[in-house]
Automatic annotation (TrEMBL):
InterPro entries: NadR/Ttd14_AAA_dom, P-loop_NTPase. It holds the Pfam family AAA_28. It comes from Rhizobium halophytocola. Coiled coil: none annotated. Residues 5-169 form the NadR/Ttd14 AAA domain. The lineage of its organism: Bacteria, Pseudomonadati, Pseudomonadota, Alphaproteobacteria, Hyphomicrobiales. This is ATPase.
């Protein structure tokens, strides 16, 4: 779907901040499934067995299920929709955690996004652990390397966002999308 745009890349690279800035400009946005799962698991009544540090496979399955629902829900939205991570990210995490490989190709074929995927690179100066992000920068960088490999293999073009202000990054995203929509 050409209007579904992915923000992916390194954990702690500024994706959520970019998503907030795009929402402030009136664009439809979908928050990262993984952060929502962790928030839910840490809240009273949440499923703690879905925490990535407890059962990475169960966490990845939950993220995949949520990402599928997010994409279905986004079909009702008008205009571009920006996703903080995607089905591809969840399927890549699932493959890494459990070895399950069948999801990637199937999801890539059945649930396409805009052909240009925006990636946030590792940016140690802004990386922070928080309540939802308990892994270290090395784990985030390893995840990033897996995503750098998988998106092009699935037919996506990747655009590395600069280490720059939120305003510069948002302007670059919108400029690139405008150019891509004209081609």
């Amino acid at each position: 779907m050409d209007r579904f745009v992915i923000l992916s890349g390194c954990s702690g690279g500024g994706k959520s901040t970019l998503l907030s800035a795009l929402a402030e400009r009136g664009y439809a946005t979908v928050e990262e499934p993984g952060r929502r799962i962790v928030e839910r698991a840490l809240a009273e009544g949440g499923r703690r067995d879905e925490l990535p540090g407890i059962d990475p496979g169960k966490f990845a399955h939950a993220a995949l299920k949520m990402a599928l629902q997010d994409r279905a829900d986004a079909m009702r939205l008008d205009g571009p929709v920006f996703f903080d991570r995607s089905l591809i990210d969840a399927a890549t995490a699932l493959h890494h955690a459990t070895g399950e490989a069948g999801w990637l190709a199937r999801l890539a074929a059945e649930h396409r996004y805009h052909r240009l995927v925006f990636l946030t690179p590792p940016w140690p100066e802004i990386y922070r652990k928080d309540t939802e992000r308990q892994h270290d920068l090395a784990a985030a960088e390893a995840e990033y390397e897996r995503l750098l490999d998988v998106y092009p293999r699935l037919g996506y073009e990747t655009m590395m966002l600069p280490e720059a202000s939120v305003e510069v990054r948002v302007a670059e995203i919108l400029r690139c999308l405008q150019v891509h929509l004209q081609t």
